[in-house]
Design brief:
About 55% of the residues lie in helices and about 10% in strands. It contains 10 helices and 5 strands. The strands form 2 sheets. Strands 2-4-3 form a 3-stranded antiparallel β-sheet. The longest helix is centred in the middle third of the chain and has 28 residues. It is globular, with a radius of gyration of 20 Å.
């Protein structure tokens, strides 16, 4: 899959209406479900989200109007199936920060990402507790929080390398029957040092 079809990069100057469309939490959730589990009907998505099929159908049409989803094959010729057009959505934080209305989209998107993290970890813990994960998965899953000291340039390099490596491994495992969908969460944000917050004395402790 080419980069232009794998990723939708939002431009606040060009995609103002699309940004407004994605400020609705249910639309973000529907798009995420299609990306994670593949094509589905409005009725199937309604069952997953505990929404009516009329509601999910309406929101899917809005997403389609802005190029996030498209019609897939029909199911028994009665109800249309929808698919995600791209694997992920991306944007420039710098561009979003100065664009009217873009901040609302970023806030909603970030909240959705945090909710997804919490839900995914809860499902993972339930799978662990129920003994449904094999030893090879138990050994190679988990959560870590590293706090290296990096320059902005090194952080950009780390972000690019992380994304590149994930793509490489996913391509390598695409035909392996043991492969399963994995929720990979990655966040990188600068923290204020103790001396920055307190006016500090510059002495290590």
């Amino acid at each position: 899959m080419g980069e232009e079809t794998r990723k939708r990069v939002l431009d606040p100057e060009r995609d103002g209406e699309a940004l407004k469309a994605l400020t609705h939490p249910l639309r973000i959730r529907l798009l995420g479900l299609l990306r994670t589990y593949g094509p589905a009907t409005a009725t199937e998505l309604g069952a997953r989200t505990e929404e009516s099929s009329a509601s999910t159908s309406y929101h899917l049409r809005v997403l389609a109007r802005h190029g996030f989803v498209a019609e897939a094959e029909h199911r028994d010729g009665r109800e249309r199936r929808w698919r995600a057009v791209h694997e992920l959505t991306s944007w420039s934080n710098a561009a979003m920060s100065g664009a009217p209305g873009a901040r609302e989209f970023v806030d909603v998107a970030r909240r959705a990402q945090v909710d997804h993290l919490v839900e995914s970890l809860a499902r993972y813990e339930a799978e662990m507790d129920a003994g449904r994960l094999g030893a090879e998965w138990r050994e190679n899953t988990g959560v870590s929080d590293l706090m290296p000291r990096l320059t902005p340039e090194s952080l950009r390099e780390l972000n690019e390398e992380f994304e590149r490596r994930v793509e490489e491994l996913a391509a390598r495992d695409a035909g392996d029957p043991r492969a399963r969908r994995v929720a990979v969460f990655y966040a990188a944000a600068p923290l204020a040092d103790e001396e920055d917050r307190s006016g500090g004395d510059g002495v290590e402790r």
